[in-house]
Amino acid sequence: MLSTRGYAAKSASAALAPFTFDRRDPGPDDVLIEIAYCGICHSDIHQAKDEWGGAIFPMVPGHEIVGRVARVGSRVTKFKEGDLAGVGCFIDSCRVCASCKDGLEQFCEAGPNWTYNSTEKDKKTPTFGGYSSQIVVDERYTLSVSPNLPLESVAPLLCAGITTYSPLKYNGVGRGQKVGVVGLGDLGHMAVELAHSMGAEVTVFSTSPAKEKDAKRLGADSFVVTKDPGNLSPLANRFDLILDAVSAPHDLNAYLNLLRRDGVMVLVGAPEKPAAVNAFSLITKRRKLTASLIGGIRETQEMLDYCAQKNIVSDVEVIPMAKVNEAYERTLKGDVRYRFVIDMKTL
Ligand code: NAP
Ligand code: ZN
Ligand code: ZN
After folding, report:
1. Which residues contact 298 (CB under 8 A, 6 or more apart)?
2. Ligand 3: centre distance to CA 127 (Å)
């Protein structure tokens, strides 16, 4: 067993604190990654506070993991010692169901083995995430990371990057399309960069007027402050696709009404409370309301390669491990541009 240092929440109301635990010795198909950086996703906060239910404590959050391969098993072919590697939201899945076979492991019918707040394949051993010194993962669930981008800014791509890339691709976003992004948080700011890079005309809907300059720098063509509902009505029936990346309960109907006939609204934000949808918001223009969950391994690699080629990264604020609780508070207040990333050297 490999003794591993990390930070864990011991209960839904506890602050994160130092925690030592064991990881398995790398098997023949495993890589051992020395973690360099881990992003703080809003999902880490939802889960550490048990806002989605069923939390497993102690919990070591973190699923935006990048680092260097420190050891490889005898059958590993994709990685060698010293390579850069990444791990996202899951570390394994059943490998045999239709979704796994289609490379959509996030929808594994047996349930993926999530990187934390979940169990290993034995359905008993808890998984511990990236707020830790090292991780052992089967090479099939490990991503290759380009050395051409700043590593700390790549970490958030492992969740926020793929979560926004996947629905843009799946829904065929391309040149000339009108795309709306609701909520300029970390997911939102990645969505702006990615949709812009795909040739879309991008409008940001935000509660934070101070983010306008950033939105334009990231590639947005327009910026709409949503606190005044009067700002939305002139945009009715206009958008091909709206991606909603808001972490808290809010009115979806106001945005559905902005879709053209057959337009699509994709939810990626996961507030803890359900939202009310007015049937008329959909009926009147045959609009579609759908959602998306991260992405499979194949598409995550495609997204990492695409971002390396297009020079797309997350705007990050690197923090020492000891500031993680403060970073949670600041994320909840929207006081981050746009992702906190923990420097594991400080662990
Ligand atoms: P984040 O950085 O905290 O951003 C959330 C943004 O939502 C904020 O920056 C803010 O944008 C907006 N917002 C917050 N509170 C609001 C409110 N009360 N009313 C309206 N807007 C509000 O979070 P994130 O890491 O990007 O994650 C966003 C959500 O996606 C979370 O719920 C997370 O769990 C979920 N998520 C889902 C997936 C998936 O696979 N579907 C993957 C990762 C994360 P403005 O300041 O611009 O208004
Ligand atoms: Zn995440
Ligand atoms: Zn499966």
Report:
1. 103
2. 18
